[in-house]
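Forum > Structural Biology > Help requests

Title: Can anyone predict the 3D structure of Site-specific DNA-methyltransferase (adenine-specific)?

Hi all, first post here. I have the sequence for Site-specific DNA-methyltransferase (adenine-specific) but no way to get a structure on my laptop. I'd be grateful if someone could post the structure tokens.
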Amino acid sequence: MLPKKITTAKVPPLKIQGIKTKLVPFIAESVKWDGAGTYFEPFMGSGVVGFNLEPQKAVFSDTNPHIIKFYQDIQTQNITSEDVRRFLEAESRKLARTPADKNSYYYEVRDRFNESPNSLDFLFLQRSNFNGMMRFNNKGMYNVPFGRKPERFQKALITKIVNQVAWVESILKGKEWLFVHAPFTDAFAMMKKGDFVYLDPPYIGRYDGYYDAWCESSASLLAKLAQNGPAGYAFSMWYENQYRKNTHMQEWTNGVLVTTEHFYHVGAKEANRSKMTEALVVSEANFNLRNESG
Ligand SMILES: C[S@@+](CC[C@H](N)C(=O)[O-])C[C@H]1O[C@@H](n2cnc3c(N)ncnc32)[C@H](O)[C@@H]1O
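Reply #1:
Sure, ran it for you. Structure tokens for Site-specific DNA-methyltransferase (adenine-specific) below:
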């Protein structure tokens, strides 16, 4: 199933900081894998990579229980794209009737979600919050502020979100996919020869507000498990930016390293365009040589 030519990746319904949408074509071209085994994505986040690769058998996992529950709910049809439409239409009217400040209806939904989490509220918060962040405090409480747009859910946006959910519904049909709430170590315990794992852990030394903290020892353990495990792997990491190089790459010694440049904007000015080199370390047997010749 890989390499695969993907020009533009499709975006799933739940976004997250560090989403790899722009890197999906690069990842899909840099890897070869026959797809006979199981595809693992133990740091699922938005799931954008695996959803676009569409393997037949997959295990998506993450320590964030809300992401996993959301996709389990779609898989079991506990929520459907039509439920999403009805819910967002009703909730958007309530949101539009309240101000953009701390009295916004957004905060009522946030409190209700923190008291008793459910997938529809989670989607509502994710799509009306500040910048599509997915952040929790150390007690696991969702704490992203409102994006300050009471009129946020226009008809076109609701349709876009409904279509994103419908896209996930369509790829789930006929696939053997599992969504598991678990740390990456549990996913490694399930892997066998012939499987493939895509790894995109949090950055070390940066507070991202993901559901769990990430530290040096987790990063070292991951490098060890991936490089000594039975499955082929591709590991994503930032390589360097204008200020510094990522020294943690040094623990990845077995595979082939490929890099690509990625621009991101801070504000609208051209001068604020920063360059980040993104790296992918691919296990030797899974590296797609075609990528080298361009
Ligand atoms: C960089 S994000 C993944 C982004 C994803 N590749 C995307 O494109 O949307 C890292 C993810 O790892 C999860 N995570 C953090 N610590 C973890 C752990 N110990 N085991 C499994 N997942 C973890 C976070 O909840 C977050 O969803």
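The mean pLDDT is 92. Residues 16, 18-20, 42-43, 45-46, 48-49, 62-64, 183-184, 200-202, 210-212, 214, 218 surround S-adenosylmethionine (CB under 6 Å).
Shout if anything looks off.
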